[in-house]
Automatic annotation (TrEMBL):
Residues 502-561 are annotated as: Disordered. InterPro entries: HET, Kinase-like_dom_sf, Prot_kinase_dom. SMART domains: S_TKc. PROSITE patterns: PROTEIN_KINASE_DOM. CDD domains: PKc. One of its GO terms (molecular function) is ATP binding. Residues 531-555 have a biased composition (Polar residues). Residues 176-490 form the Protein kinase domain. This is Protein kinase domain-containing protein.
Amino acid sequence: MSSSDSIKWRRDIRNTITANLITSKFEKNEEGFMPHGLLEKIFENEKFSIEKILGLTSSNEDQDLLQFVKTSPKLFGIVALCQQDEYSRRRAMQLFKQHHYDDTELPLPEPFHDQDSDRTSVLATFEEDLNNTDEPIWEDWNVKEFFDAQRMFLTPRFDIRKDNEDFDRRIILPFIYKDVMPNKGTFGVLYKMEIHSSHIVGVADGEAFNPLVAVKHIIPKDKEEHQKIIKKWIKEADALRSMNKLRNSHIVRFITAFRQIGSPHNDMHLYLMFEWADGGNLRQLWRSPDMAKQCRSLARAVIEQIKGLASALNHAHNLPEGLQYRHGDLKPENILWFRGNGGLGTLKIGDWGEAKGHNVKTEFRPNNTTAGFGTRRYEASEVVTGLRTGRTGGALNRRSRLYDVWAMGCITLEFLVWLIYGPGGLEIFNASITGDPDTFYQIKQAGVEKVARVHDVAVQWMDDMAQDSSCKVGVTALGNLLEIVRQELLVVEVDYSVATGMPASRPMTPKPAAQSPRNLGVPDPKDTHTLPRSQLTVPNSSGAATKVSRTTQGFGSKPVRGKGRVRSDYFHHRMEEMVTGYDDDDYWSIGSTFRQIPAELEQLADDSRKLSAYRTEYQNTGMSTLDITEHMTIDYGKLRLGRDWTFNFDNGVASSIFQAVRKFGAGPSTASPSTAQLCYECSQLRDHIWRPTFRKLYYRDDLQSVALSGTCQLHSLFWRTCDQDRGAENDTVSFENVNSALRLNGGGDPVLNIVKDHGTVLGMGEEVQISFPELLPAGSHGHLEIVRQWLSHCNEKHINYGCRASKHRSTASGTDRPTRLIYVGEPGYNRVHLYQSTPSDTEPWIALSHQWGPDRSKHFSTNSSNVDDFMEELKFEDLPKTFSDAVKVTQELGCKYLWIDSLCIIQSGPRMDFDREAKRMEMVYSGAYCVLAASCASGHHSGFLQQRNPSEYLRMSTGVGNDANYSICQTIDRFNDHVLEGPLSKRGWVLQEHALARRTIFFTEHQTYFECGGGVRTETMTQMNNNLAALLGDPNFPAILSTAKLGERILRFQALYEQYSRLALSRDWDRPTAIDGLEQRLLSAMQLKGGFGVFDGGETRGLLRRSLLWHRGDEEASLQRIKSVNGKTPSWSWMAYTGGITYFSLDFKMYDWNDVVSPWTDGARGDTALVATARRFELRDKSEAKAKFKMDAGEGVESLQGLCIVLGRYKGDMSVDEKTHYVLLIAPKDNSARDSVVYERIGAGYLLGADMMHEEGEVTIV
């Protein structure tokens, strides 16, 4: 081919390829891609045949090349664009063939820089390997052209059979249409898109696939949210995959999940793809003018769709192999509308983002519900009243599958309103359901219990519907549906045995086989027991209470009600029963005109609109929405404090630590260890366990059997983990990968960690933690290098956190530095000694937090007789092990000074200065460079650089014959157990040391932890956080309270004091002193007055009253009064007693507070006196719901009558006699006469207003 012909041909092939590109609409900068299969057709054209382009002959060598090119059309297409002549094209393809590079190797890696060569790409290395002296065919210009061109040929095909896929961010995706939807959610944006038809794989023969799809784009806002968002993406994708397996026509079909990974900015974008709902959602159906015209003729279609939704819910709640999914956010917006070919179309449940999957019944789950909050409009009443299980220790705050049944009751009721009153009626109905929040239930306080009822407005509308001729129970379909809503779905009472998956109590009448649920592919309801009749009180349309029988004669004249709300399987059965065999037109008819809305119901809507506007007005002015007559509102905030920890990993920090440890020649062996012995089943899992979407379900007996046989190490590890963490209590056991850790049975803390070595790549977009599979020896160079790296990272990254103390100088008053320190010098220095601080000192110091041990004879301390000797030398060999370990660590961390209380404070003798130095603890610990906490040392001689408890791990590979490249390790990240609940933290003085320290290194028998303002880091490279523990970890304790809402302040100080009250002190009378530094900081940060563990907020009246409402902890038989050294701690302070205390939990905004004069109030009667009005009481009903007293001296002194002061009274809309009153119980001090004006506290509790008698006048409590 001549030069001019070559140029013309190259122009022709470029034009042909460009003309056949399809524009991708996925990204903002639209780019073209070559549809799958089209390139092969281009090369089938004689003008652009492979033989002609490469000049091939019939020789064997050329025919081999031809076969190679045919299997790599994309590679050939790129070469055809980039090389100008036949020789270069042929040579390029020969080089690819020789190096075994075909289409599967695409995309080729970006050009790199070789220091020994000017060549910068893998293409160039091909030629160098040949040692060819000819001119290279790959120059800079066509190398760049190759890497630019390859993208248009690499557009992937979506395989709908795959769970998820990862794509390089540079890859062009095959979406040829894109439209953003207006309903942007919390976690991302929804798009309507179209996939090019040639880029869909896995569609079954005869199956129709609509290329129009919904794509949900989930975008992390920042790095902190990154792993949280990944977890949500994985959770929703997992739920959608599980739903797909059901093949239920009323559940939205999931197509796939995919991620875009890499540049720009090395970020990650997460997507979920599912079928497109052309009608929108159920709310849009109700508002559709077309549907409004037809709705009177759609009764049967509506009921069929509700039956379908019930079947979908039933299947989701009862998945195969014992799995259960609760949707958690059912609402009209999440029920999607597929129009179909006319009529109502099909309704499908979508948006499983709040779904929670379990293989364990609610009753047996150890944790409260962890799913995020769904829409409050359709939430069930047990969110407020709680679902208390029958199991001892069962948590109260749980959501069962019955939560979804309530939501379906609300939606079904709205559907009924739409059918009977029309779209306008539904708008009026929804405007009438108001409250704070505007749910379908209302709450009334009954004593200390919250009692729920169906919203009065909903009841009145149902009463009115029941009067319509189209809504007669047992006569019409709508009447029967209304009965199901009233008697079975919108029922606030929840039977825990039903909620937790125990057999429901539902009498059943056998049906003919042709109509049985089993034959319909639905599980038989396990409703085999009949309960006796009982009565439920509900308000009628006039507002009066009426009795409704729980077992009514419904359609078919058979009992249909048991106790409480029904399960989804029974709901579906009832819907099946309702529609099967009823073909009578009268049964389905609802007439041609909408029912007129009664004036009183319209008035309810008008009143609700006014009230809503009134609330909005007062919200905008900052006033209370609960009591619009109150002119001062208090913002309590919405923070939820809990003991659940978050577990994340930071591979950036982990990589730095690995490199530093390796630099010093420390760390585990780099030799490739052998991989675990696996059974066939587990060998199929090894390339999946590390992936973020991994989840595996085992039958318990099968898991145990294989484990005990010894044939599979992974089965054995799983079984031991299951047995240790109470997973063996269930018939099935599941392991789920969340943030590179396996969780057992869908909840709780991680039980196994998945980790890899630094530099290991398991796959694109992997989310695997870098860590050592086994810990380095305690005190080794590698171990202490990890600690150094933690401190270095904190010094560099946490400048604004306050983790590092400013330099301190001694002054004339000696307040900025410890009076004495231990000089330890540099590593290896053995002549340590006590050192007296001087005004010029600025060197940092490290402080030790430790236990002294029970044997006083073994305490190693400074006293008046040895202090001068210790100033000369503290012989290293004489130091007890705990102290010598502290010296070693201090030296290794680069500090020359160490503070240990027993050595730096003169403990006894005429020169003793403990009382003076104890007051300076705040400065010592908050000013330290860091604090070493000897958590595993039981005394001075134990040491804390001990051999750690071994933990189990397995080395794994990603394929047959591969070296081990990741590990599955027993989780040892238990900061709460190892540190906060450890033996050191049970000492009273240590709480103050922990809180005042800016950062602390905890040496436990399991591993070392580092805590600073950024959270907790572990030797396993995990990063842990907990909002409740964050107060003690605050480097500027308690800075986080400075800007906290009042509710957070109250919850935090109550948790802190409850914790401290349970700690041990050698001297009981130190109880106020050992926490005085913290209390003073709390008062200063919150700008409050107070003392003795009590806070006075002045106009914020609730703060003082809540501080006083503490009681004897349930574990305490009695509280013993401490004989105070100064005798000033008042009886109303918990500091006056030994033993643990607990605060009464009162809902925020729900109490009126009575007058109390505190010692910090104008008009105070002394620095320990409370002044309030006393009232006589006499209990009429001692049931705990109505009255409960906790006597400080124990239950034996409890009385039915006595004297009290009222601190707070419930605000609810009920008579004073019905309201709960919280009180302090008082008695004359020192058994003085009844008319004594000085009283002391003897207990606390609550009772009803009806139990209150006459006032006794103003009293003083000391």
